[in-house]
Amino acid sequence: MQLAPNQLAGHLHKGLKSLYTLHGDEPLLIQEAADALRAMARTQGYTERSSHTVAGAHFDWSEVLAAGGSMSLFADKQLLEIRIPSGKPGKDGSTALQQLAEQSRDNDATLTLVILPRLDKLTKGSAWFAALESFGVTVQMEPVERAALPAWIAQRLALQDQRVVAGEEGQRTLQFFADRVEGNLLAAHQEIQKLALLHPAGELSFAQIETAVLNVARYDVFKLSEAVLAGQAARVMRMLDGLKAEGEAEVLVHYTLSEDIRALKRVKDAMNQGRPLPMALREQRVWGAKERLFERVLPRLSDKALAQMLHAAHLVDGIVKGLKQADWPTDNWQALHRLAMLLCRHCMAQPAVQSSVQSTGRGVVR
């Protein structure tokens, strides 16, 4: 059975199952869900806990199976935790997990908790994961995207009886807070807790948050790609500066930007040949959030603009490999900034065209 993260608390209060699986790449959300499950388990008599971390190709699964099938020596019930940081249990682990899942159906003395990272589509279709899902409860911890981060911060502040001021100033404060902690949810949680220590319950001003909240944002090149395609110029500049400070490889940043440009060009070429946009996107394997961004951007991108960006990507490829290009910065990151902003400008939302149209249908477009 699958549950959304916000359904877990209500589910736990209705009664515990014998098998739970948490998977995702947000350590904070995984930790909080596991803590909630452990707390409820203690109230239900699961007072003994054993933990196993699967590491290496020669991990001994027999010990896990023995723990799952044995009665506790010191308590009536026990909590068995299995962490698989790689998300790949291997052949022996696959068999063991299926066996544990089947045993959980008739074993009320052991509550099994399996913790996994974010899983790809192939892994979710594996026999062992299907068994965990069939015999137990699975919860996928989705990341909090940038657009949802201000509301998430406001919700967390409310839990400690704090809030930003109402109206536009409060929204500006939340956006500032989100910029400081983007991509680092665990640190965001710590910064929110810090505010509870520094200030009493009630309203928080922009100045109080600006002074207290550290810049702990963490970025990755995949989120950079989405920001560029969304035309979010200020965010793109922050992300590039952050990636540089974190020591990200210039070659990887360039590859991400140039691959987006090439994909846009391929889809546009397919459209020019008469293919509908949805078909062209499927053929180029553009899915998810990027598919929606492509759908917004492509209809207004000209062949000339795409050719210009493709040429610029070629020039920057040489720059990051040590070549000099006329009229381009010699510094790798400055060249990447210029390429990113070139693509970003073409992806920005176009202002509405204003026209003074007369009743006759003629007018001057300004």
If you average the pLDDT, what whole number results? 87
Low-confidence stretches: 351-366
Radius of gyration: 26 Å
Spatial shape: globular
Q: What's the number of domains?
A: 3
Please identify the structural class as seen in this structure. alpha/beta
CATH class call of the largest domain: Alpha Beta
For the secondary structure, the number of strands is: 10
Order of helices and strands: EHEHEHEHEHHEHEHHEHHHHHHHHEE
Instruction: Give the quaternary arrangement of the chains.
Output: single chain
What separation lies between the terminal Cα atoms?
Answer: 58 Å
**Helix share of residues?**
55-70%
Secondary structure blueprint with pairings:
Layout: E1 2-3, H1 8-14, E2 19-24, H2 27-43, E3 46-53, H3 61-69, E4 77-83, H4 90-104, E5 110-116, H5 121-124, H6 127-135, E6 137-141, H7 149-159, E7 162-164, H8 168-181, H9 185-198, E8 202-204, H10 206-212, H11 221-229, H12 233-245, H13 250-272, H14 277-283, H15 288-297, H16 303-320, H17 332-347, E9 355-357, E10 363-365
Parallel strand pairs: 1-6, 2-5, 2-6, 3-4, 4-5, 7-8
Antiparallel strand pairs: 9-10
